[in-house]
Amino acid sequence: MSALLAGCLSRSDSLAPIISITNPKDGATRTTENLIISGYALDDEGIAAIRVNGHDLLTNETYQGEQGNKLIFFRFQSQVLGEGTLNSMIEAEDVSGRVSQLPYSLQIDTTAPTLELAVLPLSGGRLRVEGVAKDNNTVASVQVGEVSLQFIPSGEYPFALDIETTGSDVVVVRDSAGNETVRSLQ
Predict the structure, then answer these.
(1) What pTM was estimated for this model as a whole?
(2) Range of the domain at 150
(3) Cα–Cα distance between 43 and 16 in angstroms, integer?
């Protein structure tokens, strides 16, 4: 009878590993500068392998002693050849041989936004700054001197404002990938 009950109490591995990418999120737009993809793999029995495009991260010295853990945080850099879509297949295999796959996609943008700028001197040390910021994806922020402009991110943003000059003012335009263009108001 106890052998029968023991069979009821034992369980086999019934869950495949869970894979999650925490940064940058799937489908995000990023520049290649400092591009590190990070995430975790989780399994109730333990992780035996984490593969990115067939390469097992757990064979790397960085992850020595991690194999078999139920939760493993991982990071990797992908070979980026230029602008476009970076596709990766991430797999996690548990100690029982169950495999989960996570297709991962990232938009790579290496093109800085453009800036058309006109600066007109006004009286009292003020400047009238007019311009148009444009990007092949999304203009995310525009800062003129000490003033951060508020707007809904879009592919093009026209702006005009008067500012007090400090003598070293610049306009900084950033796109959604983190690329930036900086221009002096002098």
Answers:
(1) 0.74
(2) 114-184
(3) 7
